[in-house]
Amino acid sequence: SESVEHAVMPDFTLTKPAIFARETSCDCRAPHEKLTIAQARRGTPVDRPVRVYADGIFDLFHSGHARALMQAKNLFPNTYLIVGVCSDELTHKYKGFTVMTEIERYEALRHCRYVDEVLRDAPWTLTPEFLEKHKIDFVAHDDIPYSSAGSEDVYKHIKEAGMFVPTQRTEGISTSELITRIVRDYDVYARRNLQRGYTAKELNVSYINEKKYRLQNQVDRMKEKVRTVEEKSKHFVYRVEEKSHDLIQKWEEKSREFIGNFLELFGPDGTWKQVFQERSGRMLSYALSPRESPCNSPPRELSPLRSPSPPSPPARWHNARPSPPNSPKGASASISSMSECDEDEK
């Protein structure tokens, strides 16, 4: 089963860091004969790669360094790239103080994908003996004259020997540019590292500046909180406005619906007016023409136990003020009593 699994799954391995140069340096089996640029560009045998050398300080290793090494690696179809890194002693003597130590710079170069070999403590000036010892075919560097160590161009003799191959610099990025940014924004980076736990002594910051930076950090935190509150307030106001707009729109719709229903019920031609008119007409017609009392209703007999009440004195019918009827039946009774009085007078 292990053999089947091994056959199915490919064997992926990470690229190992570049090796450090040994004393022998070149292990080529074929005799190392001098090449011309034209020969190198046509291609060489696998066991005879074109050995290209690129040197530098490589402090604060950045993309400009990596692009220069990429160009050097791709100069020829079959290139073996050797990178020489100068030590701290030489660099501080001829160029200036570095941010990274030489060990850190060596390790940074080892992990660049274009580098095949790292040569530590590289010389400042390339001698014929050094080139012969490491079997170097060509030297890659940008074409700008590099004046140092009393020379107008340390690569002048390499160019005259036809062993120099130029590369292009990447504009806008360099070690000097990065250091300039740090110096320009010194206060910002000092405050940043104080906030991350570094002491004033480690940062070489005075007591007064330390207190000033810490106060500025507190002010910045307060500003950030204020900005956060403002953003939340804006979001809240926006949501309230959105809700208010929806409520107003719904209120307008309900108002129109209520007004329409009101006009339909109580308007000039509304349902309520028609109902009121119909009920008023029925009541008026009922009051003006009431139903007649039945003629064949039996007379009321007096009870023998009770004596009849004495008759009331006669009164003329036009002086009598009968009480207003409370109902159609009461109106009918008053009208019939009035007709009986008229008959008596006649």
Automatic annotation (TrEMBL):
Q: Which keywords describe this protein according to UniProt?
A: Lipid biosynthesis, Lipid metabolism, Nucleotidyltransferase, Phospholipid biosynthesis, Phospholipid metabolism, Transferase
- Going by the entry's taxonomy, the superkingdom of the source organism is recorded as Eukaryota
Database matches in Gene3D superfamilies:
HUPs
Keyword Membrane included in the entry's annotation: no
The segment(s) forming the Cytidyltransferase-like domain are: 53-181
Q: Where is this region: Disordered?
A: 288-346
The Gene Ontology terms for molecular function here are: choline-phosphate cytidylyltransferase activity; phosphatidylcholine binding
Its annotated pathway reads:
Phospholipid metabolism; phosphatidylcholine biosynthesis; phosphatidylcholine from phosphocholine: step 1/2; Lipid metabolism
Pfam families, alphabetized: CTP_transf_like (PF01467)
Q: What reaction does this catalyse?
A: phosphocholine + CTP + H(+) = CDP-choline + diphosphate
Give the InterPro entries listed for this entry.
CCT, Cyt_trans-like, Pcy1-like, Rossmann-like_a/b/a_fold
Answer whether the UniProt record assigns the keyword Cell membrane to this protein. Answer: no
Q: Where are the transmembrane segments?
A: none
Any idea of its EC number?
Answer: 2.7.7.15
> According to its UniProt entry, what is the function of this protein?
Catalyzes the key rate-limiting step in the CDP-choline pathway for phosphatidylcholine biosynthesis.
Q: Which family does it belong to?
A: Belongs to the cytidylyltransferase family.
The protein in question is named choline-phosphate cytidylyltransferase
| Organism, scientific name | Cyclopterus lumpus
